[in-house]
Amino acid sequence: MQKINELLEPYAELEGAVRQLMAQLFSDACGMCTACCCRADICEEATSSAFLSLLLERQGVKAADMDDRYGWLDLHGCSLEYGRPPICYIYFCDQLLSRLPDDETRYASTMLGKLMNHVGHQALGGWHLVEIMDPADLEKVDVDGLFQRLEEAQAAFEVIEEFCQTGRLSRSARETLSAITSDED
Length: 185
Prior knowledge:
The chain is mainly α. It contains nine helices and two strands. It has one domain (2-184). The chain is 60% helix and 2% strand. A two-stranded antiparallel sheet has the order 1-2. The protein is globular.
């Protein structure tokens, strides 16, 4: 379990950075939405996943803190700093995507949403890291593979962050992002 514990801090840092950039990009639209896709049943994954539970514990959040109706949502959105299920980042409603100015911005935003999913992809056989429910199974996880995917996600985050500042994706930036799209194979 020691190796998986070493992953917690860098994972939480990346997720916090992704969360912050997404808030900058979308908080005006999501904050005004009255038909939120966020539901308590999705939030429950954070308490049933062995890995996400470790992240919740790290920030002093207990399963009992989750509201039965609203999950982790409060008036300002999700109250979790990190430890969200990857679907919380991956899913973009049509209204969000239509607000983005062009295809390049939609592409960069979609890649941003895939970063946390990328880190945990195929952590144990075909299982995603957050799909592992038994804490004992975390001992069997390919932690070196997770760290490799974390590095790829961090590099992709830097590319996306630069795109948000410049509005341009170079050929090398697209190559960096291609590691993230390889999860779809």
